[in-house]
């Protein structure tokens, strides 16, 4: 019996010969001039826990220590989710398959959740159909990210631009979140 | 442009801007409803949302039928279909009006006294009869076809009400850039200003000034303007619920639009400018159609151009009714008399009325009214100090406008937990100390008069903006002309000895009922209210509470505050269930969680069951199989060949860190230190109270990394319990927990041929028994997809659980399924899984256990690592009760009739006969029909069960007791030969 | 919906939080050394005051941290919040304040107005 099993291989999905399945009918939704709702591009995701500096070195990105803030660098984004917790988003195939960082934990969450993008001037109001946070730019500025709720589901909400939000949701809640956004979109 | 609408099947014309009330009045319709208890004919009392009488139902014709709407709030549109309520066969001729003749029997509390005997008749006979006779509208009988929206909103200042004070507050509050929301229940902003024909503000007629202010507000980007929006409730930390009606006023609403929207507004500061409601006078016959509030009559005439009558008598204790009289006269209504119950009336408005040639009598009041379906005569008179009537006079009229002064609308203020203060001068309650970040402005805090209300509103708005962090200079005061200052009133109490003088119009409560209640010993207004039902109707006593209070206080000879004031509660006006439900209906009622294999299962005719929020495939019927046949076939196939099962909903937690094993030792009863990487263990988790909380297999991937599974339903609870201990009790441990439930899909391959299924699919892995024995885990790949492979079994067969990233699950599933089929296997669902595990005596947490079961009870005591100094729940295991004789223990049951399937939950008894009072020995926890063993099986928790093996007890059933033999809970392969194959 | 001050994320809506019982009840270091009564007290005895109450919350749908807060159980107002493992701040009385107003109306839970 080996001391340690081979670590999971972190494989970019597009390197696989198998079609990746989205957990819901991800048709884009357009309300002209007001809202565009579409799936986020394919992303690799890691949950990072523990020592910020060790993790920063391992992933070539200084992790944000200010609560509820995201940083982007080198084509990667690190979203602060808790005092020792970050969500690392990157293009598929760009993350080195390392999972062992001293004083830290790294877990592949690439298939645990999916991303949705809401763009357009109505995006904050449509999100307000289920999110109890104040999404005014003075209260939820560009670069802010947080776990929160949307209706009866938990989401991670990240404001990438004044009128662009990135929503991360666990895959089995994605159909609900997408359905509620669709329902709320006509305002 | 006229609008055609119908009321009770008759067609009428209305004008844009009309309410159903004003349009019917303009068409000469005065009878709009029948009263709740006595079925007395009723007309309009008010012009606004406080209307108690004119409740109607509106029928959209596609199942969207809304009862109990106030006609004063229903906007007329082309094609509106409205009906009166609570009458049979028609509004004009209501058979149940016989109740009115029986009024002496129907006094306060009649149902407590009259319908006592025989016992039991209340629920079966009396209550249904009473409910049918006394009632509101009919509840809709089909699902609501409309849909509803909701939204959270945040602002610096929320202004409730858009009369003079509210408008001024909104303009002042938003001047410095604060985020302001202004809402008003009416279709237009302006409140009382919309019915003001004499005032000029800053040189503009009142409605024009309103338009100018709304224009200013609309030009400010941080201002949100909401009409048709009722602030109905105040919730903690300045959250105010608003109900916005979006399409009810439209003739042909766009079906994609929501009908109503709930706003949950979080406001840093709130300005309540809710206005005041006129108080009716209490005299016999005050509910006859044509008797209405004086200011309502004025509003109908001025704002809606709808004459409330041709010849009016005004009865008042207040100056404002004089303005109503003057405006009615100016609108062409003949004002025959103003009867002022006060002994003097010499303010500017009475003077103006006299100057306009209107007859004014002081010290005069209404003694009674006459008229069959509407008032024709008001009987007036003066009353001596000794109670004798003088100067009795019959005055012909079709309108009696009454005013007993004004009641500030304190509903929201009181809901915010502000303290009410009684003002003896005006006999009203006013806002006292605030409990929330709010301030009242205008007539809802007793500031009447147009210029005062404007100034008060501006002050409140600017202060609210300041308190929410904005610069707010007070705007220059408005210049007001033509708004004669109305002197305040000294309400005159109602006469004691009078019959059928209505106080609560909607619940048909008279002054006599209130006196009866006080005589019968109800001295607190809260008790009087419950006994008489005064103030308990859908209008929550907006027009009645203060009169009821005055009458009770006068009768008891106590000051009003000593009698108390009933509590204000949401909603201010009724809110539809649709608005409160919002999006949470149909497929959006709850998230429907599906596994990555769901689509495949649905395409293969799976029958699903709900497990928490998850949909799980229960069984896969073939041809015309019923559930039992399908499940039996699936079970037999697993036992004889191989089955494929979707176990993706199992909770999964990755536990990582140098102290991972130590953490596992503390959380679970088992020993983990010596578990080698690559091996698994069946983990059992207790609550600190020592009872079983959850179970699952944990695999050690590395010295510092465990992959732990939980029950489907227990996943969030288990993770929360782990986080709790980690964060708050043992923060020194270097461990991190991550939920990977949704990262990994789980394909269970179970059966004697399981290895044959997987061997050609796993990429270069040795899965023979020597390399992968029972309870082992390996990392590799399957058909090119990364995999964590567990050799575990929940069936008693040789089994594997293939964990693959969820996005690839369906592809892997299809590859595995092809092999399963090729080897004579099949897919199976949760029902077969339940049967298979029960045959093997495996428990399901929450089915065999119920929060009071110990591991010893469940036969799982072997798992406890007795050498461990401590783990969660260990100390509780030492309590004497936890090992006491007589505890219920897990056993198997075999029915005397092998075809008999017991009910889960069936009670077990010593003897077949179980008369009332028989002590239960235990209960059946799981029960399944014949599948692979040739007979039905059951699991049960039985008192001292393990000592009873071989005995016979009785399972109680509706059709008679069934003898059952107590056996070991492991029905199949107790030595585990199949498991370890 | 209450607003709850998370000591890490700031003031956030109640929907993001989970209540977790009375604060400052540490798990005994040696449970085995407690007699049944003392262990029962640890498991079940709580102060349940009318007034200021130190209690645990978890910002479940936020930063995920457990923390402590002092909330007045009569007014339902939060007075302060602080990190788990830190002491209750000074100046937050530990029992019902004697000047807490009596219930305005003891029939408040019944019926509509």
Main features:
heterotrimer, A: 187 residues, mainly beta, Gyrase A, domain 2, Alpha-Beta Plaits, 5-stranded antiparallel sheet, 3 helices, globular, B: 981 residues, alpha+beta, Ubiquitin-like (UB roll), FAD/NAD(P)-binding domain, 7 domains, 7-stranded mixed sheet, 6-stranded mixed sheet, 24 helices, 27% strand
What's the gist of this structure?
The complex is a heterotrimer of chains A (187), B (981) and C (113). Chain B is α+β, with helices and mostly antiparallel strands and 981 residues long.
- Chain pair sharing the greatest interface: A-B, 59 and 64 residues
Percent helix of chain C: under 10%
Distance between the termini of chain C: 21 Å
* Name given to the CATH architecture of the largest domain in chain B: 3-Layer(bba) Sandwich
Radius of gyration of chain B: 38 Å
Question: Tell me, what's the shape of chain C?
Answer: globular
Outline the fold blueprint.
The complex is a heterotrimer of chains A (187), B (981) and C (113).
Chain A: E1 29-31, E2 35-39, E3 44-50, H1 52-59, E4 70-73, E5 76-82, E6 85-90, E7 104-108, E8 113-119, H2 123-127, E9 145-150, E10 153-161, E11 164-170, H3 174-184
Antiparallel strand pairs in A: 1-2, 2-8, 3-6, 3-7, 4-5, 5-6, 8-11, 9-10, 10-11
Chain B: E1 3-7, E2 10-14, H1 20-26, E3 33-34, E4 41-42, E5 55-59, E6 65-70, E7 80-84, H2 98-101, H3 110-113, H4 121-133, E8 148-160, H5 164-174, E9 180-183, E10 200-201, E11 204-205, H6 206-218, E12 223-226, E13 229-235, E14 239-245, E15 260-272, E16 276-278, E17 291-293, H7 294-302, E18 311-316, H8 320-330, E19 334-340, H9 348-355, E20 360-362, E21 364-370, E22 377-383, E23 389-396, E24 399-403, E25 406-408, H10 411-415, E26 420-423, E27 428-431, E28 438-440, H11 450-467, E29 480-481, E30 502-504, E31 509-510, H12 511-519, H13 525-532, H14 545-556, H15 560-563, H16 577-581, H17 598-603, E32 607-611, E33 614-619, H18 627-640, E34 643-646, E35 651-656, H19 660-667, E36 680-686, E37 692-702, E38 705-710, H20 715-729, E39 736-739, E40 744-750, H21 754-758, E41 776-782, E42 785-791, E43 799-805, H22 809-822, E44 826-827, H23 830-839, H24 874-877, E45 888-895, E46 907-909, E47 922-928, E48 937-943, E49 952-955, E50 962-967
Parallel strand pairs in B: 1-7, 8-9, 8-15, 9-12, 15-28, 17-24, 18-19, 18-24, 19-20, 34-44
Antiparallel strand pairs in B: 1-2, 3-4, 5-6, 5-7, 10-11, 10-29, 13-14, 14-15, 16-25, 21-22, 22-23, 26-27, 30-31, 32-33, 34-40, 35-38, 35-39, 36-37, 37-38, 40-43, 41-42, 42-43, 45-48, 45-50, 46-47, 46-49, 47-48, 49-50
Helix pairs in contact in B: 5-6, 5-11, 7-8, 8-9, 12-14, 18-23
Chain C: E1 3-6, E2 10-13, E3 18-22, H1 36-44, E4 52-58, E5 66-72, E6 77-83
Antiparallel strand pairs in C: 1-2, 3-4, 4-5, 5-6
